[in-house]
Amino acid sequence: MSARILAIDDSPTIRSLVARALRNAGFDVFLAADGVEGVGTLMDADPALIITDINMPRMDGFGVIEAVRASKSHADVPILVLTTESGDDLKARARQAGATGWIVKPFEDDKLVAVIDRVLGR
Amino acid sequence: MAEMDELRDLFFVECDELLDSLAAGLRQMETPCHDKETVHAVFRAVHSVKGGAAAFGLSVLVTFAHRFETVLDLIRSDRAAADQQVMPVMHRCADCLADLIAAARQDSPADQPRVDALLAELDRLIGGGGSDDAVAFTPILLDFAMPEGDESGFTIRFTPHAALYRSGNDPLALLVALQKLGDMTVTLQQDALPSLEDWTAAEPALQWHITLRTAADLSEVRAVFEFVVDCCDLEIAPIVQDDDAFTPIVIDFDAVPDPVPSNAPAAAPSPTAEATASIRVNLDRVDRLMNMIGELVIKEAMLSRIIQTAGLAQDLDVTAGLDAIRQLAGEIQESVMAIRAQPLKLVFQRMHRILREAADATGKPVQLITTGEQTEVDKTMIERLMDPLTHMIRNSVDHGLEDEVTRQRRGKPLQGTITLSAAHRSGRVQIEVSDDGGGIDRPRVRQIAEDRGLILPGTQLTPSEIDQLLFLPGFSSKAEVSAISGRGVGLDVVRREIMALGGRVMITSVEGKGTTFAITLPLTLAVLEGMLVQLGDQTMVLPITSVQETLRPAVSELHRLGDSGRMISNRGDMIPIIDLGRAFAMRDTPTPLEDGVLIVVETDSQKRAALHVDGIVDQRQVVIKSIEENYGRVAGVSAATILGDGQIALIIDPEEIVLASGSDRTRSLAASA
Questions:
Q1: Which of the four, A48, A83, B316, B342, has the lowest number of CB atoms within 10 Å?
Q2: In this complex, do B14 and A12 lie within 8 Å of one another by their Cβ atoms?
């Protein structure tokens, strides 16, 4: 059975790139354009894993992580942060908020899939 | 790879939007009432460009966007001020970013000296204040000389902290990942487990000892723990073949930096209005829809005619039904036109940049005020307005505004003001470019026109006629061609472009106060306001924009020229009469001028002629159908339409008719000489 992944990013380009990489690897993909939309779609998407951007309008990636970790239904879903920053402080902050891991943009499709497999224990 | 190309295209389309919101945001940042969200939005725009550019390996773009973004980050975290020093640089960076994107899109090289100069300026702004690039994460590579090909491995001691579980990481997933690297034995340290009564979820006590036989090196093993190194105790040691001594190499991952200070943006929902949902549609589809609506309107007219001839017009049910259909068709047509409509904002925003460049080039301080940028016009119109407006803005800065010295003498503010406005006015769009400059110097304009042989010396001209001289091809009011206006484009080109869009340009000027160029445009290019004229048994359409007046001439105003040439004196001008029936080869002999009507037209090139037609039928909007696509090119005809009775009517191209008749006359004159 293919796992379902919710990808949140305000850039249509990045969304498409992520969706393409994941679909090619056989995942079901749900997309959201910002944090509010992403958190709102949580019940419908019921994801096995969430990938989120950091800088987004309305609700940013930290907001997403906090909201998901605070939710009753999906508190333990792994959340990967997709970011162009590779600074340690950003990682620390993402971790502080409860992120599972991070992927630095630009990503290679194979690496992205490998990271997801690792986090999901596949 | 076609898919990647498509994504690349998508990226550039996204960039267009990002650049627009970037430019708008930067302008808003200069107003006192901007809020924090504006700065965040500006930052995000640049950040998104960077992210996408990185995905497509556009390194110049990435480097530039990154540095740009760093300064914006300083501003949004209040470590730098968006003041008079910084904002012009930000604007220039936005312009440069736009150019870099354009260059990347066309695979052409960037203007490196300019990029470098701006990067240097950004660096200066970043100065000491920026803690940019919190040292990029580079894994510490520990080199263990392993005998080649000898499968050895590692012993791992792994104790997750509570934070590991909280972060959505799963020890099982990590063990699965490790197993993929080789042969693994896992032992749970039972002695570390508390008794069940003492157990609390907050203090996890699971601890594993792992022996991994693998050909993988240390960095691969460490990669498995990449996300959890800061929330577990981890010891990784190589299995030493000939030595039983277990000397763990403890890698200290606890040195986690403190959480980022609280000046980071809060995730608070912004007060900005909810974005309305929208979809991207291929323009072809909308065009097809537009076409079908056109057909519907025509069919409705046909149906109405059939009902008339069938004598059913008295039947109230039938006429009521028909009226309803007509109204519905009209509304659908309007709605489809609204789909194609886009706010002029897109053009107006770009004009800010044009103005900045023109102001820089001339050294005149200028501000641009825009109003009515939400006014909507057809999408095709937006693209084609870009050039004429660009030229008019440059023209206003270069020619319209006086230099600082003159302005001071006249008691005007040193900074000139150019106003760009748009509004809907009686079914058309009116766009105005006005400056508060010196107005048109009419004696000088007149002199130049005389010098260039455009008018005869001593010609009587009203002030507005003098203003019109500016639109003559070959007219340039500057003795020297300046850097910005000397690009081989004159106002005549602007005028031709606007007329090609079915619009008109008017100019008004008050000495010492300024000049205003007003453009009126139809709402769409798919519909044309036309005069239906009778020509033999044919009905033809003349675009109303080229019609100046219609008249039935008095015999005294008519003049003969050679065998067949006929002229009419009209407002002190002699203008040629063109028999449209003969022009379209419908008849050989000229019709007597007493029968029929003359329509005075002015072409784009400002030639006037009187078209002789048998009669005027009506004036109405017609749906334009391309004749070239459906049939082929017809001389003197620009397009076709379908009338209510199902008849096809050709739309006359006055420009071509006048040009063709002009060359005919020259030929016949030459022959008779």
A1: B316
A2: yes
Q: Do A121 and B135 make contact, defined as CB atoms within 8 angstroms?
A: no
pLDDT (mean) for B520-538: 82
Q: What residues of chain A, 36 to 95, have a C-beta less than 8 Å from chain B? A: 36, 53, 55-60, 62-63, 66, 69, 76-79, 84, 86-93, 95
Q: Which CATH number covers residue B474?
A: 3.30.565.10
Q: Are residues B552 and B502 in the same domain?
A: no
pLDDT in tens, A95-104: 888 888 888 8
State the smallest CA–CA distance between residue B268 and chain A in angstroms.
Answer: 7
Whether A121 sits inside 8 A of B50 (CB atoms) is: no
| Torsion sign over Cα B80, B81, B87, B88 | negative
Same domain? For B174 and B100 the reply is no
Residues of A in contact with B257 (CB under 8 A): 88-89, 92
Looking at the structure of chain B, the number of domains it has is: 4
Q: What is the CATH number of the domain that holds B642?
A: 2.40.50.180
Interchain contact B172–A (C-beta under 8 A): yes
Among B residues 343-372, those touching chain A with beta carbons less than 8 Å apart: none
Which pair of tokens denotes residue A113? 């899939």
Residue-range definition of the domain harbouring residue B441: 342-478+485-522
Element (H, E) at B527: strand B527-535
Q: Which of B356, B364, B424 is nearest to B393 (CA)?
A: B356
pLDDT tens column, B463-472: 888 888 888 8
Rg, C-alpha atoms of chain A: 13
Contact B205, B193 (CB under 8 A): yes
| Domain match, B576 and B436 both | no
Q: Are residues B32 and B79 in the same domain?
A: yes
B131 has pLDDT over 50: no
Contact B39, B49 (CB under 8 A): no
Query: What does the CA dihedral B281, B282, B284, B286 come to, rounded to 10 degrees?
Result: 10
Q: What percent of chain B has pLDDT over 90?
A: 9
Is B168 in contact with A100 (Cβ distance < 8 A)? yes
Nearest to A58 among B56, B170, B269 (CB): B269
What is the amino acid identity at position A7?
A
Q: Are residues B377 and B509 in the same domain?
A: yes
ipTM: 0.84
* Helices of type H across B453-529: 463-468, 491-500
Is the residue at B333 inside a domain?
no
Question: DSSP string of B179-223?
Answer: HTTEEEEEEE-GGGPPPGGG--TTS----EEEEEEES--HHHHHH
Q: Where are the alpha helices (DSSP H) in B34-111?
A: 36-55, 59-76, 86-105
Q: Which residues pair with B499 in a beta bridge?
A: none
CA distance B38 to B198: 53
Say if B267 falls within a structural domain: no
Please report residues of A whose CB lies closer than 8 A to that of B175.
121
Verify that B516 and B633 share a domain, yes or no. Answer: no
Is B491 in the same domain as B629?
Answer: no
User: Residue A97 belongs to a domain with what CATH number?
Assistant: 3.40.50.2300
